[in-house]
Specification:
The complex is a heterotrimer. Chain A is an alpha/beta fold. Chain A is built from five helices and four strands. The longest helix of chain A has 19 residues. Chain B is of the alpha/beta class. Chain B has six domains: about 130 residues, Ubiquitin-like (UB roll) (Roll); about 170 residues, FAD/NAD(P)-binding domain (3-Layer(bba) Sandwich); about 120 residues, 3-Layer(aba) Sandwich (Rossmann fold), CATH 3.40.50; about 180 residues, FAD/NAD(P)-binding domain (3-Layer(bba) Sandwich), CATH 3.50.50; about 150 residues, FAD/NAD(P)-binding domain (3-Layer(bba) Sandwich); about 110 residues, 2-Layer Sandwich (Alpha-Beta Plaits). A five-stranded mixed beta sheet of chain B has the order 2-1-5-3-4, with helices on both faces. In chain B, strand 24, helix 16 and strand 25 form a beta-alpha-beta unit. The two termini of chain B are about 45 Å apart. Chain C is an alpha/beta fold. Chain C folds into two domains: about 120 residues, Rossmann fold (3-Layer(aba) Sandwich); about 80 residues, no CATH class. Chain C contains seven helices and seven strands; from the N terminus they run E-H-E-H-H-E-H-E-H-E-E-E-H-H. In chain C, the strands form two sheets. In chain C, strands 3-2-4-5 form a four-stranded parallel beta sheet, with helices on both faces. In chain C, strands 1-6-7 form a three-stranded antiparallel beta sheet. The longest helix of chain C is centred in the first third of the chain and has 17 residues. Classes of the chains: A alpha/beta, B alpha/beta, C alpha/beta. At the B-C interface, helix 26, strand 50 and helix 29 of B face helix 3, strand 3 and helix 4 of C.
């Protein structure tokens, strides 16, 4: 069980991201675990990006694009689906649950669907243990603070 | 820090100091600073009351800390305030415990208490109650509404809110303001008012749900600005209330806005008032208006909408249950002489099919029946769509007209009586009935038409002719869309675009004369500077700040690497903040900016412009969406929302640090057009472009212009097509800007939008031409049938041949002869599953002509569905009145034709009669299909544009971009796109001219900065990108390396995600930027250490390409 | 072009399991073109192997990635040498030749293959490669209308067709074109069908791998041997 998973969502500009905005306009409530990264098209989602997210400790990743047949860039979402299938196989092979990764399709008018996807994915990931690859959050925060202090000291004289 | 002035005082809240106007309360001051203080009894716009004491804070005084109610404590001297000390928290908890005891039934209160750590109360609870006596309801009723319908009665424990004498109040206007402001859900409006409580069921959502008096027109409204429904707004009705003005911190509410009348001097007018749905109550027999489960198709569309009143769930209005049996009744207010709507509305058959499919997709067990007269699926791929509905999804189509609905008193079901497939009278009950309403012309324009001096036809639509469907009776006034004739989206888009072309022809000389060019300062070169990021967190009034702890986000942002400034602002997009942003960019020498606010989809252009104004490249701004995708959707969980907002900012900072300035290239535009095909489509497009001032190269394969239209003699409205053609050919020949190439074809097309180079082959000669756009208009032709004895008897003709013979007068029809027409010949079959659209009307036209010329002859039309859509329906009716016999046959029992010397015998089974009939026929006309031309494959390869399964060319978007190809700069018009009438071809060709002119009228064309780019050093010429790109943007360049044609690239990044050598990258979305965002989220510490690759230097050989982003863990160890 | 595909991640992980610092080396020529060993694939493998090691408790293993122009050329491998000393094992995403070239250049390091080298072939459709040449050392494409019966006929018939093909497809693998149908079609188009009336001669397999390790020598290039 994972009570506060970190889920990264690659959303295409024209459909999924717009649907996420619409969910906001409609004030639909869904779990706050999804972090959206906007790309022009899900066809820009590289297998490398998906793996990079897992390697850096994402508990779950989903890719949300236009409806099949409705891709703004014609077939980007179909390519994305294939890449997600490939990345799932790789996850399976290395012993990470492939269900941590999913591909969804929705139109820009489907705000409720976005909320539903976010809820569904959060529930799914919450039922799994935290990613074994996840770095310790506290250590990360501490490192950030330290580096910020160092960086600020370095640029202090340079500020104005 | 702002200068202190006399009327300002300094206030320090939780360690942060700010200047506020003297007299501001602590609560308001804290809110301005983005610090939230909980409260129950405070409401913006009402005077402070200090009743609930939840907003208690600690103020430092010389005599030590003192607790005060922040909502009613005005600041008139420098003050230090603490909102979050242990003592304050404890006080608030005690207050909440007391309130919980007073109002044990309020779930709202319990939620608020739980958020503040109070789960139960230690005090003795009242037996029941929800009211905490905060007085908001009483104050709003008195102060704002001026009513005083309720008041506080009694003292001490029995004190309560009630009306005079506890009786329902006549004073109450049932406005509901008390219920809105009540923080604990204690108000029961029905117990207060003597009036009937009526929600505002308005036209929005088609009278299905109530809506506030101030709202967006619809969720995707453009502009996204709410407006006040003046008819229902209390302020406009009574002058009271005004709550919205008080609440809106942006001060955007302006009650004094007036309708203004302005005079414009224009060179052309385009009328696009659209249509109105038929008023279903005019056909009362269907029960609309009193049978609750009878809805219109427009209402049903709202019910299906994910953003509609039922969030996309199909529900019966009577009980909210999901229907199990649903019926559509077609032609309500169309094809109906009874209400003067003789015409067909053209769109309803497909709209009903679409709604049926969507309903089935929502509820797979739903049983859907469509009652129709003729299934008019005449558009491109429409028949396929209906077949899918029928065969794959089980939608039932019943050809029977329903005369009325009977509502069952108990169940509120509707009983419909119809003739079933065996012609038996059947009565069936349905849970819900949808009426497919006809399209009527805009009512507002009916009165104005006379003033506009525009003639209307007998149904109130704009009067046009088939050969000029765009021009009204008044020169210079054009028409687009359903005001001309009921039509579907693609035809509407085509016609409206075409009307623009017509207008632009008149305006050609003044093109561009009203354009104002904005001046920007020179762009600062930031390439060698390390990233210096400014982070601006927007409150969006209280939209963000009321949920997200903006101060915490600022704090987290300032700790991030490369961030030199982080601050929060009430409205980052407001003019004064924009100016502040520019100042900060200067002051801190910022070279990257992160805005954490609303969605980049609406606001990125604004901030890009701000950066340009500040002398920075516009690609150096990055937005974090913490409103639409955070505060609005997590309003119940401020802690997690804040954590999410911090994460989003980290992602944006991670990405922003690696943003690079991008130049927006412009490419020169060749201002000429290549038009392939010299038929009506090609000539119309060529003339429309040439009339707008652009040179045109018109290429025709044969030795003569005119194409298929040479075989058409009259239109349905009786215009002489050959005369029209002759005029067009003459104009083309004489036009100084049209260069005609007969007996020619195009052999090679290279380049992209704005800059094509093509080879034109005429006989032995090949010429190279350059052009900015290309138009494909090579048409289609009538196929020669192979069935029904065609070619075996001189008396078997196609419809086109029949019309030619009629025009030439070479028909020999004896008196008393029988002429039969067979429709849908070799089309709408498994092999050729589409409808040719024109044949039904052609048959009607020829039949009428035959009846006129040979009144003694009998004409019989054998059909499957008469698809005389739009005003063609009137001709169909006229034909029936003229005595033409229309006999239907089923697809699985087509007519049989037997030839015996001169005589032709046609046998047919009429479904209504249920038996075979034999006709002895003297002349047989076949509705042969319209088929694509043989050279389609070569043209498809030549232009690299796709064909559909039937061999017609595939447009960029079937509904919204019907004249464009997906590849920019390429267009299509006429029957090469799909079967269509001459009038529709003329519209589409004009539309092409408008779309093309939008490109050709530019000297240079900007190319987005966000396009793919090939690193020639890394490219290994594997061709993967060439295979992947659907637009043909990458090509192999002169050095055998791939290069991306920047004008053709759409910026989707598909190629860059496949390139095996990672030689391709999508600008503004390069690996380090994406990984920077991911790292910013998950490992901001590692991301901070930089992604700079380490290259060992070697002279003379290619260096190894070390990967840019090693794992975070390995980075820690180094 | 040499066509290869990647070994399974678990196989690669198990090969390198005993090492603490591993370098994945891609190759920028054939295997990049066939989407097996270019920069993208090295990156994907790198991520996957690092995660995989971490999941079996060997997260401390350093796995780095790089790609060189061509693994079958010492000059390019030399560029690796500077960084190469940091690693105790190398996993090559090159063809078999690349793996061995790296092994020869780094005698003190373990070198493992990350790919299975498949055949010499070409792209048929995006993502599909087909074998076209067996490198038999005695090319007879001229006799067979430029369609190789060794690689493209399931039965390697020099005197085909076998009689089992249907509608131009092979009876062994129905989604493959019958090589002899192709030979016939081309020959017919070229008007050289009569060439096929004579029986094709035997193949000299001594020049193929059956004849032992092969070498190609261009004497005019070998001035060293003059000394």
């Amino acid at each position: 069980m994972n009570d506060n998973p970190v889920i990264l969502a690659f959303c295409c500009h024209y459909c999924a991201y717009a649907a996420a905005d619409l969910a906001g306009s409609m004030r639909l409530q869904y779990p706050a675990n999804v972090r959206v990264l906007k790309l022009p098209c899900t066809g820009k989602v590289e297998v490398n990006y998906i793996l990079a997210a897992f390697e850096r400790g994402a508990d779950g990743v989903f890719i949300a694009g236009c409806l099949e047949g409705g891709c703004h860039y014609l077939e980007g979402n179909l390519r994305a689906r294939r890449r997600v299938e490939r990345a799932k196989k790789i996850l399976q092979e290395i012993g990470l649950e492939p269900e941590r990764l999913e591909m969804y399709n929705l139109s820009s008018a489907e705000g409720p669907r976005f909320a539903q996807i976010a809820t569904e994915m959060t529930e799914r990931i919450a039922a799994l243990p935290p990613s074994p690859l996840r770095p310790d959050r506290a250590t990360v925060e501490k490192n950030v603070q330290e580096m910020a202090a160092a960086a600020q000291a370095a640029v202090a004289g340079d500020n104005r | 820090m702002e200068a202190t002035s006399a009327d300002h005082v300094a206030v320090t809240v939780d360690g942060r100091t700010s200047q506020v106007r003297a007299g501001t309360t602590i609560l308001d001051a804290a809110r301005q600073m983005g610090i939230a203080i909980p409260t129950l009894c405070h409401y913006r716009g009402l005077n402070p009351y200090g009743a609930c004491r939840v907003c208690v804070v600690e103020v430092e005084t010389p005599r030590g800390p003192r607790q005060v109610a922040s909502c009613s404590y005005p600041l008139d001297a420098p003050t230090v305030v603490h909102t979050d000390t242990d003592a304050v928290r404890q006080s608030r908890q005690t207050v909440l415990e007391l309130l919980l005891a007073q109002a044990p039934d309020s779930t709202e209160l319990q939620t608020l208490a739980a958020e503040m750590g109070v789960k139960a109360t230690a005090f003795e609870k009242a037996p029941k109650g929800k009211c905490v006596l905060c007085g908001l309801c009483v104050r709003v009723c008195n102060e704002l509404m001026g009513r005083g319908a309720i008041n506080m009665f009694g003292r001490g424990a029995p004190r309560k809110v009630q009306t005079a004498f506890g009786e329902p109040s006549d004073q109450c206007q049932a406005c509901g303001a008390c219920a809105v402001v009540c923080p604990t859900g204690a108000i029961d409006l029905a117990a207060i008012t003597a009036r009937h409580i009526q929600p505002h069921i308005t036209r929005y959502d088609q009278y299905l749900t109530a809506r506030p008096s101030i709202d967006m027109a619809h969720p995707q409204a453009a502009p996204r600005v709410p407006s006040i429904d003046r008819e229902n707004c209390l302020h406009f009705r009574t002058g009271e209330c005004g709550l919205c003005k008080e609440v809106c911190q942006a001060g955007a509410i302006d009650y004094d806005q007036q309708e203004t009348t302005r005079d414009l001097t224009v060179g052309a007018v385009v009328l696009t008032p659209g249509f109105e749905a038929f008023d279903a109550t005019r056909r009362g027999e269907f029960g609309y208006g009193f049978a609750r489960n009878v809805v219109t198709n427009v209402q049903f569309e709202r019910l299906l909408s994910a953003s509609g009143p039922t969030a996309g769930h199909v529900q019966r209005p009577s009980d909210g249950k999901a229907p199990r049996k649903l019926a559509f009744i077609q032609c309500v207010g169309s094809r109906d002489t009874g209400c003067d709507n003789e015409y067909c509305s053209s769109v309803c058959c497909m709209a009903a099919t679409k709604e049926a499919i969507q309903a089935k997709e929502h509820e797979p067990d739903l049983d859907v029946t469509i009652f129709f007269l003729d299934l008019r699926a005449f558009g491109k791929d429409f028949d396929r769509y209906c077949e899918r509905a029928k065969n794959q999804l089980g939608v039932r189509y019943v050809r029977s007209f329903i005369s009325r609905t009977y509502e069952m008193p108990e169940t509120k079901n509707l009983a419909l009586t119809y003739l079933d497939a065996n012609m038996k009278r059947t009565t069936e009950e349905f849970d819900m009935v949808v009426l497919s309403l006809g399209l009527e012309p805009s009512a507002t324009l009916q009165q104005q038409a006379e003033r506009l001096k525009v003639a209307l036809n007998r149904w109130g639509f704009a009067q046009t002719t088939e050969l000029d469907p765009l021009t009204t009776s008044r020169p210079g006034v054009f028409v687009g869309g359903t005001f001309q004739e009921p039509k579907d989206i693609p035809e509407t888009v085509m016609q409206a675009t075409a009307a623009a072309a017509k207008a632009m022809t008149l305006l050609a000389r003044s093109r561009g004369s009203a354009v104002k060019v904005k001046k920007y300062p020179l762009e600062r070169d930031v390439t060698d500077e390390p990233a210096r990021i400014g982070v601006f967190i927007c409150h969006c009034g209280s939209n963000i700040a009321s949920v997200v702890d903006v101060a915490a986000v600022v704090k987290a942002a300032s700790a991030l690497p490369n961030v030199v400034l982080a601050e929060h602002n009430t409205y980052t997009c407001a003019d004064d903040t924009q100016d502040r942003l520019k100042d900060k960019i200067d002051e801190y020498r910022l070279n990257r900016v992160v805005i954490a606010s609303c969605t980049p989809r609406t606001h990125e252009p604004i901030f890009r412009d701000t950066l340009r104004d500040a002398g920075l490249n516009q690609y150096l701004v990055e937005m974090a969406n913490i409103r639409d995708q955070c505060s609005w959707v997590h309003s119940g969980d401020p802690v997690k929302a804040t954590a999410k907002a911090i994460d989003r900012v980290r992602m944006s900072v991670g990405r922003a640090a690696r943003l690079v300035p991008l130049a927006e290239e412009t490419i020169p535009v060749k201002n000429s057009a290549l038009v392939i095909g010299g038929g009506v489509a090609g000539m119309t497009a060529a003339l429309a472009l040439a009339d707008q001032g652009f040179p045109v190269e018109l290429v025709e394969k044969s030795d003569v212009l005119g194409g298929t239209a040479r075989q058409i003699h009259t239109t349905l409205d009786g215009a002489d097509v050959q005369a029209y053609l002759a005029r067009a050919i003459e104009r083309v020949g004489k036009h100084p800007r049209i260069k005609l190439h007969l007996n020619s074809h195009v052999a090679k097309v290279e380049g992209g939008i704005g800059d094509f180079t093509s080879h034109l082959v005429t006989g032995e000669q090949t010429a190279e031409i350059t052009h900015g756009v290309a138009v494909l208009a090579t048409g289609a032709l009538e196929a020669k049938p192979t069935t029904y004895g065609y070619g075996q008897s001189p008396s078997v003709l196609t419809q086109v041949e029949l019309s030619e013979r009629l025009a030439a007068g070479t028909l020999d029809i004896p008196a008393g002869a029988t002429i039969a027409m067979i429709q849908c010949v070799e089309q709408r079959t498994a092999e050729r599953p589409y409808c040719s659209r024109v044949c039904c009307t052609q048959a009607v036209k020829n039949a009428l002509e035959l009846r006129r010329k040979y009144p003694q002859a009998r004409v019989v039309v054998l059909y499957r569905d008469m698809r005389t859509y739009g005003f063609r329906e009137a001709a169909y009716r006229q034909a029936r009145e003229a005595g033409v016999l229309f006999v239907r046959y089923e697809a699985d029992a087509p007519p049989q034709v037997a030839l015996n010397g001169q005589s032709i015998r046609v046998s047919i089974t009429e479904p209504a009669l249920g038996r075979a009939m034999d006709l002895q026929v003297d002349l047989l006309a076949l509705a042969a299909p319209m088929v694509p031309r043989a050279d389609r494959k070569e043209l498809s390869d030549l232009l690299r544009v796709p064909l559909n399964a039937d061999g017609f060319f595939l447009e960029a978007h079937v509904k919204l971009r019907p004249v464009d190809f997906a590849s920019e700069g390429l267009f299509l018009a006429g029957t090469v796109h799909a079967p269509k009438f001459l009038t529709e071809t003329i519209s589409q060709a004009n539309a092409v001219a408008a779309r093309a002119a939008a490109i050709l009228s530019r000297k240079r064309m900007p190319v987005s900065g966000q396009i793919a780019w090939v690193d020639p050093e890394k490219c290994i010429s594997c061709m993967t990108c060439v295979h992947v790109c659907p637009y043909g943007a990458p090509k192999v360049g002169t050095d055998n390396k791939a290069e991306v044609q920047s004008a053709v690239c759409m910026g989707c990044g598909n190629c860059t995600a496949e390139c095996p050598a990672k030689a391709l990258s999508l600008r503004h979305c390069i690996d380090v930027q994406v990984l920077g965002a991911i790292g910013g989220l998950l490992t901001p510490d590692a991301a901070a250490r930089g992604f700079e690759p380490v290259y060992p230097e070697q002279v003379g050989v290619a260096r190894p390409k070390w990967h840019a982003a090693p794992a975070p863990e390995t980075q820690h160890e180094r | 072009m040499i066509v290869a595909d990647r070994k399974s991640i678990s196989e690669i992980r198990d090969m390198i399991k005993g090492h603490d610092r591993v370098l994945l080396v891609g190759c920028g020529t054939c295997v990049t073109v066939c989407l097996a060993g270019g920069e993208r694939e090295v990156g994907i493998l790198g991520s996957a192997v690092r995660m995989s090691l971490k999941l079996i408790g060997r997260g401390h293993v350093v796995v780095d990635e790089c790609v060189i122009e061509r693994q079958c050329e010492d000059a390019f491998i030399d560029a690796l040498a500077i960084r190469g000393v940091e690693y105790d094992a190398i996993c090559s995403l090159g063809c078999g030749a690349g793996v061995q070239a790296l092994a020869e250049r780094f005698p003190d390091k373990a070198v493992y293959p990350g790919l299975n080298t498949q055949f010499i072939g070409i792209l048929e459709n995006q993502g599909v490669w087909a074998e076209k040449c067996a490198a038999c050392g005695a090319c007879r494409l001229g006799e067979f209308a430029a369609v190789c019966p060794i690689t493209r006929c399931a039965k390697r018939l020099f005197n085909g067709p076998c009689g089992g093909s249907r509608q131009g497809k092979c009876e062994i693998t129905a989604d493959r074109d019958c090589a002899w149908q192709l030979i016939y079609d081309r020959a017919k188009a070229l008007g050289i069908l009569d060439k096929f009336e004579a029986v094709a001669g035997l193949q000299d397999w001594s020049t193929s791998t059956d004849g032992g390790p092969r070498k190609v020598v261009r004497e005019d290039q070998c001035i060293a041997s003059l000394e």
